[in-house]
Every structure is written in C-alpha cells, then in structure tokens.
Amino acid sequence: xxxxxxxxxxxxxxxxxxxxxxxxxxxxxxxxxxxxxxxxxxxxxxxxxxxxxxxxxxxxxxxxxxxxxxxxxxxxxxxxxxxxxxxxxxxxxxxxxxxxxxxxxxxxxxxxxxxxxxxxxxxxxxxxxxxxxxxxxxxxxxxxxxxxxxxxxxxxxxxxxxxxxxxxxxxxxxxxxxxxxxxxxxxxxxxxxxxxxxxxxxxxxxxxxxxxxxxxxxxxxxxxxxxxxxxxxxxxxxxxxxxxxxxxxxxxxxxxxxxxxxxxxxxxxxxxxxxxxxxxxxxxxxxxxxxxxxxxxxxxxxxxxxxxxxxxxxxxxxxxxxxxxxxxxxxxxxxxxxxxxxxxxxxxxxxxxxxxxxxxxxxxxxxxx
Length: 369
What we know:
The protein is mainly α. Helices cover 44% and strands 4% of the residues. A two-stranded antiparallel sheet has the order 1-2. Strands 3-4 form a two-stranded antiparallel sheet.
C-alpha cells in the first residue's frame, strides 16, 4: 500500500491506527513535546516508570501505584485498549501489522501478471488473505472467552491445568463482579512484596485480581472492613487516638505519630475503601439495568398478550381479530368482513351487514339486477 508522504510520517511516528488523510475532515496532527506529555484535551493517565514503583523494588506506602486513582486509571486504560475495535481492526494496515505468536496473520494474495499490475498501477491495496496463523487466531477468537475459555473446555495442557480449569469459578461469578475484576486486571508490575515475576495481574498489595478460587470483588470489601476494624480498634487503643473513616487518618494528640507508624495500613485502607465504593456502584448499576430490562420485557409481554383475542377480556364478539388472535378482515365477526357474514353494523339483524338484495346498500346498477 502506498501512503502519501504525510500519512507515512504519521505512521512512522507510531500512530499506526490513524485513518489516512483522505478519509479525515482535517489531517491528524502528531502531538509535539516529550513522550510523557499528555496532549491537550485528553485526561491524564498515570504512566508508571520502568519499575512501576517510583524507585525500584517493592512498592512503598507512598508509591504512586498504591494510590487508588493511579491504579484505576492504569488498569481501566488497559481494559479499554483491549476491547474490540472493528472499525480500526478492519483497516488494511492494521491487518498487515497483525500477528499471532510472532507470525503474520495476513498476507497479500499471490497475484501475477496483469492482475498484480493493475493493483500496482492504480495504487490500490492488494487484497489480503489469512495465513495459517491467522486462521488459528480467528478460530480461537470465535470461541466465547477466547483461548482461556477454550483451554477450560479441553481441560488445559496436562493434569494440573485440567484440575485448575475445572475448579476455576470465574464464570460462575455475578456478571457485575466479572466486569469489576476485568477492570482491575492488567497491572503486572511490582507490589509491596517486590517484583512480580509470576506474570499474573495483581493489585499493588500483591493480591491476584483474577483468581481461580476466589472473588476479588468480594475480597476488596472484606479487606476494607477488616482494616477499618483494626484501625479503629487495636491501633487506636495502641496510640491513644481516634480513627476517622472518612479521611482515612488518625486524629488526636498522637495522630501524627500514629499516622506515620501506620502508613501501609492506611494506604491499604484507603485503596480498598475506594475499590469497595466502585464495586458497589457497579453492582447497583447492574441491578438497575437488569430491573429496567425485566420491566421492558414484561411490558412487551403484556402488549403482546393484549393483542391476542381473549373472550374474558375482549367480550364474546371477536371484532377485528381472527381466530388466531391476529387482525383479520375475513373472519366471521370482524369489522370489514364479507357481505354475507357481515360486521357489527347491520340494517337488518343488528349483527352484520346484509347481502345487497336483502336490504343492504347498493349502487344504481344493482337496482336493476
């Protein structure tokens, strides 16, 4: 594919998913400044350094990632970047750049002679086709849950994986909790215990956010509660202070010393407090949406039922409804039926229109028949 000089410069600058200028109202402007500078108009998202801990080694109570807002922005950014983007994924260059296990997912079709010359001569993209790696990638992508779900179905690789997948209860968790957990995945940097060499997603305090046996959404609430009990109980008595759950700090004559000696406990409390508040909001939102959907379905069901003929509801005469409960214009008693059976308007029987020669309405031609 031949790019214009400007589009090539955008691509070379690292912006590989920007549509070509010919498809944009205004050309894309490459941001200027340092690589860590946030372009105007975009929300600032914490970008951790190489150690993700602000100094290397284990995270400390004051490390940026122990702050809930930084952790949330980082993991949620990861989450949204991993969502399907069909409008971008279907772009030609996106397909060319796509790989699976280090191998290209697409390749140009093998065209020869006039066919290839026509594409080259007109500057048109040569059609792409899936490679073997791409076909495998597409197959795994069509399995609900991707490769992890597929591994669960086949039992993994070996007896240990088989047992782990059989015991994994993530799929049985409430949908709101599953989404909460997914939003907390993606951080694999150091924790308060040091470097994370497991490759698993953890929170800054070393807890797996995606566990085969537990529910991180429940854990954050339990931890928030137990830390609050400890800080307002044992620690308050120890330092002769009072704990303020709203500010997440100690107050009183010895507050400064107590806060200093409980830096990590207070950092954990404030982190899990915010996690719990967000989890509860997610659950309430999910419950509200489920209730709205249930009400919508119930209303639709009532409307459908109202359309069905029911003599107990609509009376003994099926006006305008056929025998199957649907609108009809030729069923025994509906409005607009044929002249013989008639409708509810009649000049003879009171039940329906009568035939023309038996007293029904007629035109002048019928008079002389």
